[in-house]
Amino acid sequence: MKQITVVGAGVMGKGIAYTSAVSGYKVFLNDLNDEKLAEAKTEINAMLDLSLQHGYLIKERYKEAKENLLYESDLTLAAKDADLVIEAVLEKMDLKIKVFRALDNICKPEAILATNTSTMSPTEIGAQTKRPNQVVAMHFFNPVHKMKLVEIIRGLETSDETVEFVKSIALSMKKESVEVNEFPGFVTSRMNCLIGNEAMNMLMEGIASAEDIDKAIKLGLNHPMGPLELADLVGLDTRLRNMEYLHNTLGEKYRPSPLLAKYVKAGKFGKKSGSGFYEYSTEGEGR
């Protein structure tokens, strides 16, 4: 395993590319938007610099990671030699299917195709390719370089060899993994979406402030992060898409909070936009 290609230079794509590079892999980060790619390069370099300064990376690995990271807007050039492709585009099934159909034609026959979806069906995505046995979901968590878990979701035709392969990649990135049989929302997203949605409804109802709701969950239930700050970190637009998908597939208990929909309409997407349930600076963060 030499090359990983990451498709999508958003929050998750940048994190997966960074983590793959510091784990020793050659990495192509692909996005159709050249401006977004340039922004991703700046942010990843800032993360690398901070990681070196704070002692999380030795100088040799820092230099190697910078050399291994390549930024390419042409999907064919980015993916034709990849051993593993990890798709990290928006949580829209039609968009994911479009990407996977293209990858199926571009990638070498033995390449594994993974989706970083947090809710959607790897079976449905894999069925759009000629290699459904080599399609799997690898659900990373944000921030990728800090979070320890990768959920590995097996589609209906995903082979044992594919599952073991992506488990070994996760392990090489110093991640723990859990294997999940496909069902909408898997394990973590089903739980997170319910908890976060209820927190938003409580905030809307005036039960407590965002700060006190998060503090209660962190100190009372021992969660490392409150549900509202976690939603801000994930992205409120992303959370809304997840909730809409789960509402359509699992029913009424996943109906999105009206407050979430209102924030997204206002352009308050959370940390990435600088404003959500909290206000944020734009300073970068190292490991």
TrEMBL record:
Limits of the 3-hydroxyacyl-CoA dehydrogenase NAD binding domain: 3-182
Name of the protein: 3-hydroxyacyl-CoA dehydrogenase
Annotated site residue numbers, Important for catalytic activity: 139
Keywords, sorted A to Z: NAD, Oxidoreductase
Annotated residues for binding of NAD(+): 8-13, 31, 91, 96, 118, 142, 272
Superkingdom, taxonomy of origin: Bacteria
InterPro entries assigned: 3-OHacyl-CoA_DH, 3-OHacyl-CoA_DH_NAD-bd, 3HC_DH_C, 6-PGluconate_DH-like_C_sf, 6PGD_dom2, NAD(P)-bd_dom_sf
Source organism per UniProt: Psychrobacillus lasiicapitis
GO BP: fatty acid metabolic process
Family: Belongs to the 3-hydroxyacyl-CoA dehydrogenase family.
UniProt keyword 4Fe-4S present: no
Pfam families: 3HCDH (PF00725), 3HCDH_N (PF02737)
Keyword presence, Oxidoreductase: yes
3-hydroxyacyl-CoA dehydrogenase C-terminal domain boundaries: 185-280
GO MF: NAD+ binding; oxidoreductase activity, acting on the CH-OH group of donors, NAD or NADP as acceptor
Pathway the protein takes part in: Lipid metabolism; butanoate metabolism
